Amino acid sequence: MQTPIYLFATSPYEGTIHINSLDFEFFQPKIDFSSYDFFIITSKQIASVFKHFHITPPHNKALCVSSKTALAYQKIGGEILAIGNGYGDYLFEMIQQYPKEKRWLYLRAKEVASHFVQKAKEAGYKIDEIILYESRCSSKILQANIPKKAILIFTSPSSIQCFLQNHHFSLEHKVIVIGKTTAKALPKNIEYVVAKKTTIKSAVDLAITFI
């Protein structure tokens, strides 16, 4: 029997058993976007917030953490300033390429894994933050029936945290994570492999080699 591949993510992918790991609550932004030069966006959910409240994205160009995030923002009419490599910590280096006089607005979740904004502020960059959504563990991940022998793909620190609320890792689980930040959320005794790229496709391609 072929080893099943479980994908703990907010979006499905062909060839996997998709377990939606998070549910979201969106908050309507109450802020003057014209006060800022650029946006910082680290999640595709920001595009969902704009769509949910029928907001046309303003003309502020956005520094996006990854190509997937940039594509989601472009699809709703947003303009892109630059695209990162998928890691939040790398955005600090990208911000440093712009004058400190520029004003940034970080469109973010209530909880974030990276601390690049704090580093940028301490370096003298003008960055305000606004919380546009909050995530919580979905009932699907909490109630999922996960076999002892399976390949598990985790796409975010929160997907691991939600998994651990009601589940345990077995010795026969093969764990794949997208990104080093996600890996940090794993218990220290768990062996894992990091996907070559910070994409679900890269993680699934890696998982297939273990079947």
Automatic annotation (TrEMBL):
Pfam families for this protein: HEM4
UniProt signal peptide: none
Gene Ontology biological-process annotations: tetrapyrrole biosynthetic process
Keyword Cytoplasm: no
EC identifiers of the protein: 4.2.1.75
Domain Tetrapyrrole biosynthesis uroporphyrinogen III synthase as annotated: residue spans: 30-204
Name of this protein: Uroporphyrinogen-III synthase
Organism listed in the record: hydrothermal vent metagenome
